[in-house]
Amino acid sequence: MKREERPRRATIHDVARSAGVSAATVSKVLRGVATVRKENADRVRTAVAELDYRMDPLASSLRNESRRIIGAVVPDLESPFFGALVTGLQDAAERAGYHLIVASSRESEEREAELVARMNDWRVAGTLLAPVRSERGRGAETLRALDMQAVLVDRVSDDERYDTVSADNYQASANVADFLLGLGHRHVLLHGATQVSKAIRTRLAGFTERAKALDAGVQVDTVLSDADADVPHRSICKYFETRAPADRPTAVFSLSQHSTLRVAAELRRRGIRVPEDIALVGFDDADWMQTTWPSITAVAQPVHTMAEHAMATLLARIEGNNDGAPVQHLEACEMLVRESAGPETEVPRRRTRGN
Amino acid sequence: MKREERPRRATIHDVARSAGVSAATVSKVLRGVATVRKENADRVRTAVAELDYRMDPLASSLRNESRRIIGAVVPDLESPFFGALVTGLQDAAERAGYHLIVASSRESEEREAELVARMNDWRVAGTLLAPVRSERGRGAETLRALDMQAVLVDRVSDDERYDTVSADNYQASANVADFLLGLGHRHVLLHGATQVSKAIRTRLAGFTERAKALDAGVQVDTVLSDADADVPHRSICKYFETRAPADRPTAVFSLSQHSTLRVAAELRRRGIRVPEDIALVGFDDADWMQTTWPSITAVAQPVHTMAEHAMATLLARIEGNNDGAPVQHLEACEMLVRESAGPETEVPRRRTRGN
DNA sequence: TATCATCAATAAATCGATTTACAGAATTTG
DNA sequence: CAAATTCTGTAAATCGATTTATTGATGATA
């Protein structure tokens, strides 16, 4: 009977003793190094099973320069998008034998920089950063300053230092322009809840540039506003308030999920019917959009693919399988056409432009 | 000039050397132990600032039996509820000087058990487990088997071994019963997407028992179904299909957010108007519920308070400030009355019971 | 003044793994 | 058969902190 009152966990030395070999040999077997006689390897494996041995990832990581830990910093964990992203990252990291440490910057750039520094404290092998703002934000800056291995995800465009992975916001928004103008809309409102996010700026540019290219006479209004408080709500209110019904846009393209919610709420509040009076397309799909009435046409981001690709890219860098120039990877999005805007819907009021 | 090609991070020994003291002294200063002469303490702090020293949490944790790491295992990260829970936990853990390691069991009990074991591998000081099923599931079982410090959150009732924290599902559901019966409803459908979750079973019991107590003649139908695939969808379909409009319930109480979405979709599909034909109350509030039409009356869970309380409870156990019997803590919920069911709404078709 | 506490500081052990450097055995080569 | 080479296995160093045991120095007490 053991002397310890509490059954201490078996260490690699216990396994070694039980198998009648040295700790170094056990380590070799566990890490799959070939230079071990089969007989000894078997005895080690038996001892591991018998003692119910499990490696301490902390002790294991300490010795090595490259620790088998990957950090992920995302702007928030309460939105399904980043929730799904993190879930995908965790899955991919585990499959590659890495641990994932997750932290939310809660949309604060200051916190983001601190979290990146903290990931560096953990001596992570690499970091996946979904910046609050863009590849020029404080988090990315800290990555550079600390010379860390990293991949930037979402809310980014290309970068001279890091690989980036994001939805093809530009192309997807251009497609929305094609779609809405194809339906005959010539006066569109763009609404975005924040001017901070690079992704949202890109969506705005994608739509606007394509729309102008298709028809220079198109009227594109924009209501942009900084994030916090109810400012975005009030600004969209004011837009509709100060605008005669005859001068209303015939379609709205909301540039984020949050924004879509705002717009839908405001339209309902004012009794403006969708899609009869106004068509609505939102960027970023959500469960509820197919259930609400009318169901909402939305651009869906392939979040799982993005997670997969981002992790694969990072791992390639970490493991030295890629030392080429940084690559900007864009994932194609899909537009899910629903009731709030679609071919069956006529354009509300066709008006020829010309003030 | 240093000889290293890459500027190695400063260690505690570098700080010690720079301050002209021993590593042990530096450690004392950093951990706030009093037995250090003020002059030396100041020199240490200066050296820390100069060398830009940051402690390696990994190395720091290794020596101590109780590592300053807390594990959190939740059923999923894609729902706002658990996302918010994790955010709250992370905040609380950080304030107490702990690191939080998060993992999603993805609604799999097997994975849950494995993740709990993995938290034990990290030698976490304690674990917050939001079980897939209940306090009797595989994760909790593993916690017990490994004799870990833990607090169980959500989807649990009381437990003889661990403190638990959850919304007061029973009372909140009883309140829904009071509310709906108070409005005159005498035939209610309860719909839950899964029979697995303890929380949902409790909500069912809370409503049913109170309803029966208020009026033994109340008719409560239940459509329960196991999670995956589209089974829940089909079962709610069938319910309405095989039921003459005259025999329809006058209200639905959906027992989860997901379920609310299902029910709302199905009612719309069949052209059943809410609240004119049928009233709807959902358990678990979401952003979109105040925007959708009609806006949906829902029970909101105080998720941030729950996170706060759960972490406080765990820390008290860890730090030995509490060795009393395990406590079941219930957080009161709030019902947000909106258009889908409310006092202004008349009960659709009043019918006297009696088959 | 001699003896006993008290206080500050440190050297060395420790946590649990990995890795390095080296030794002995087995095998191949000249 | 001796020398060179390859295989296996181990002792010891290492990662970066914390903790323990111990040593001096200082102050208090008899």
TrEMBL record, chains A, B:
<protein>
    <submittedName>
        <fullName>Transcriptional regulator, LacI family</fullName>
    </submittedName>
</protein>
<dbReference type="InterPro" id="IPR000843">
    <property type="entry name" value="HTH_LacI"/>
</dbReference>
<dbReference type="GO" id="GO:0000976">
    <property type="term" value="F:transcription cis-regulatory region binding"/>
</dbReference>
<feature type="domain" description="HTH lacI-type">
    <location>
        <begin position="10"/>
        <end position="64"/>
    </location>
</feature>
<dbReference type="Pfam" id="PF00356">
    <property type="entry name" value="LacI"/>
</dbReference>
<dbReference type="GO" id="GO:0003700">
    <property type="term" value="F:DNA-binding transcription factor activity"/>
</dbReference>
<dbReference type="InterPro" id="IPR046335">
    <property type="entry name" value="LacI/GalR-like_sensor"/>
</dbReference>
<keyword id="KW-0238">DNA-binding</keyword>
<dbReference type="InterPro" id="IPR010982">
    <property type="entry name" value="Lambda_DNA-bd_dom_sf"/>
</dbReference>
<keyword id="KW-0804">Transcription</keyword>
<dbReference type="InterPro" id="IPR028082">
    <property type="entry name" value="Peripla_BP_I"/>
</dbReference>
<keyword id="KW-0805">Transcription regulation</keyword>
<dbReference type="Pfam" id="PF13377">
    <property type="entry name" value="Peripla_BP_3"/>
</dbReference>
